[in-house]
Amino acid sequence: MRLNSNFNLFTSTNFSPTKYIPSPSNGVNRFLLDRIGTEQARATTIVQFAPHCTFPKHTHIGGEEFVVLEGTFCDEYGSFPKGTYVRNPIGSAHAPYVEGDGCVIMVKLLQMADDVGEGTAPLYVHFDDERKESTEYGSALNMYCNDQTGERVQMCWVQPNTLFPVDDYAVIGGEELFV
């Protein structure tokens, strides 16, 4: 399957909860944003977990990163509430589950650069982190940065009627925005 897979083109997708599709795991639904491949795919997806559902233990052959949008995401490493960014590097493994509140995440799979020395320990950063910096457009929080690969993950809070600037990262390597 190929969906919004030409990353040299601008694309925009409007989310609709009526367009979730079921995953192979019971109680897990997906809204596809981009995808290259079948079940184990390079993908960006909004995933909805029903209350009390589990997902089988799996290894991240190309890494995984996600933001908890609603509820609480759990695995053997902890419980991560709304507003948490989780980065599971290549080779990491976990068995996710959701308790009574259900959960919605925006997840990116198989998109990490290989052999950048990250190891396999997960990274967790919460939005309420006090490292938020003031910017010309509002504020920003750097969640992850790797100068070797040029990758930067940043959460931005943009004030109404303010332009969001294009920076050097976007000009050189492109930019992906989730609003």
TrEMBL record:
UniProt xrefs under InterPro entries: ChrR-like_cupin_dom, RmlC-like_jellyroll, RmlC_Cupin_sf
Gene3D superfamilies: Jelly Rolls
Domain ChrR-like cupin: 15-112
Record's protein name: ChrR-like cupin domain-containing protein
